[in-house]
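Researcher: We plan to redesign the surface later, but first we want a full-length starting point. Tokens attached.
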């Protein structure tokens, strides 16, 4: 039996990552690190929000559970305030909670929608929380007031959102991508039909705010520049595929220091890429379940990812016995996440 246990462990953790304990009792829907410290928050389908302090000592990593709160229904998204004091969470109970984590105060409801809240972000330049819902609206909130500062109608349900002030990109059903310049948040800056043929799963703004990445259910990522003069630099590429098997791209994260990025997918793999040289820097071994979400810490020295059932094959394929949920921490080597010099660059005058 010992051998069987060891084999099962290696299949769920083939990259020998550090495990965050205790594991949530159901699938993880979002992971977010504090922008100021190695504090990790996970939201889950078991209605819980959990927080751990991650402690590094050389190449060793430990996770210390700090606190948890609950919603009335599954929690779908999370975001941190830029000062690292406060966490926001939202989900199927149609409300967003503000959790003053560092002060130890109780969470309070700061936002409401007419349908589940799928995405949220804190906008540092405006001191506002923005929430995106399946009720086809975006709402901006001053957390000291009970009513939204502004409600923006969307063409469809919100599926994905990314904010890198002043750029915000929202992906909705029907492959709409709505771009906002947050210096004028009440007007759409641009509306684009996704360059990918199938449903949008995730978006990530470029660190320089000049464009964004988009991932979809067809195992493909689009690299899109906003400036019309840069359109020749747009391209799409295949990933998270295995022969004829095609898997969803569930998560896109830019490295905070190097500007490279990670993809994570329903094939149970995560990969590191450099969009500028159009190369994959590192392909990691596949886990035995999907990776629905992932996140870098504030300096990019830790990459967190969840391994669990992602519900993409429906409830009928959910096996309670084998569907364990894990959160792992990978310490990226510089060679995995640092862009390689372009070929011939050294010889140019």
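Model: Full-length starting sequence:
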């Amino acid at each position: 039996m010992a051998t069987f246990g060891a084999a099962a462990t290696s299949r769920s953790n083939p990259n020998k990552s550090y495990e965050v304990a205790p594991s949530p009792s159901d699938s993880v829907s979002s992971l977010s690190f504090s922008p100021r410290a190695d504090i990790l928050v996970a939201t889950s389908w078991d209605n819980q929000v959990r927080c751990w302090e991650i402690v590094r000592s050389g190449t060793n990593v430990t996770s210390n559970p700090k606190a948890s709160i609950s919603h009335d229904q599954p929690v779908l998204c999370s975001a941190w305030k830029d000062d690292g004091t406060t966490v926001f969470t939202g989900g199927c109970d149609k409300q967003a909670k503000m959790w003053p984590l560092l002060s130890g105060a109780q969470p309070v409801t700061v936002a409401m929608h007419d349908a589940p809240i799928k995405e949220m972000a804190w906008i540092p330049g405006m001191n506002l929380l923005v929430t995106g819902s399946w009720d086809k609206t975006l709402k901006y909130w001053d957390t000291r007031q009970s009513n939204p500062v502004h409600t923006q109608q969307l063409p469809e349900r919100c599926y994905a959102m990314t904010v890198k002030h002043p750029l915000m990109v929202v992906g909705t059903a029907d492959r709409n991508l709505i771009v906002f310049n947050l210096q004028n948040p009440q007007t759409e800056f641009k509306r684009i039909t996704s360059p990918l043929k199938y449903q949008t799963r995730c978006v990530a703004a470029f660190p320089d705010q000049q464009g964004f990445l988009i991932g979809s259910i067809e195992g493909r990522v689009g690299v899109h520049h906003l400036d019309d003069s840069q359109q020749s630099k747009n391209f799409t590429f295949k990933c998270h595929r295995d022969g004829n098997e095609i898997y969803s791209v569930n998560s896109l994260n830019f490295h905070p220091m190097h500007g490279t990025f990670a993809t994570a997918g329903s094939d149970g793999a995560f990969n590191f890429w450099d969009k500028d040289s159009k190369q994959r820097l590192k392909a990691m071994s596949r886990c035995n379940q999907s990776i629905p979400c992932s996140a870098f810490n504030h300096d990019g020295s830790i990459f967190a990812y969840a391994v669990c059932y992602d519900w993409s094959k429906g409830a009928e394929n959910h096996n309670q016995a084998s569907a364990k949920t894990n959160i792992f921490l990978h310490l990226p080597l510089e060679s995995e996440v640092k862009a390689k010099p372009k070929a011939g660059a050294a010889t140019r005058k």
